[in-house]
Write a structure and sequence with these properties.
The protein has 175 residues and is mostly helical. It has helices at residues 2-8, 14-25, 29-36, 46-60, 78-83, 96-99, 114-127, 135-144, 148-163, and strands at 69-73, 102-106. Bound molecules: zinc ion (ZN).
């Protein structure tokens, strides 16, 4: 059971990973998460997501490349294709010019707190300017969202929970 967290939290200090696993073992991890983020966001459709992303882009990256297409993608593997394994490796850039203006968000993020959605949108917007998970990239993320590191850490914990077959915490029922 601990494996899921290790994968999602690869690159974080071991003591932090141990603490997460300890809390999980005591069934305290999820209540703790839910207490910090009590509500799910309302950005449920691709259309609403498109507006949400354009709004953030207009606020923070006015001079950046436009985004043409935004959608929730159920096939996206968030860890491998979006967040990365936190080891500062370059992203796979197969057809980078083609895909650059399209932002895909894993469907897991449809039923999450607004803070986690904001984190992943900030992450993808930052990639419009910085391809790699390097220092400049994370600085840009923090420019858009000062709490970015903490939000990414908490979202990773939740994704690790889901990946281990855990029940969704912010399930809303209605599609
Ligand atoms: Zn990334």
């Amino acid at each position: 059971m601990a494996e899921g967290f290790s994968v999602y939290l690869a690159g974080y200090p071991q003591e932090l990973v141990d603490r997460v696993q300890g809390l999980h073992g005591q069934s305290r991890l999820l209540p703790w998460l839910q207490e910090q983020y009590p509500e799910a966001h309302q950005v449920r459709t691709d259309r609403a997501l498109y507006d949400y992303v354009q709004d953030m882009r207009a606020r923070y990256l006015r001079n950046g490349a436009p985004v043409d297409k935004v959608l929730y993608d159920s096939r996206l593997r968030v860890l491998q294709q979006a967040l990365g394994t936190h080891t500062r490796v370059a992203r796979v850039q197969g057809s980078k010019l083609k895909t650059r203006r399209e932002i895909r968000i894993g469907t897991q993020f449809r039923q999450m707190p607004e803070a986690f959605l904001r984190m992943i949108v900030v992450h993808e917007l930052a990639h419009l300017k910085e391809m790699n998970h390097d220092k400049a990239f994370y600085q840009l993320c923090q420019h858009m969202e000062p709490d970015y590191p903490q939000l990414e850490f908490h979202a990773r914990i939740y994704l690790g929970h889901l990946d281990q077959g855990g029940e969704p915490l912010w399930s809303t029922g209605a599609g």
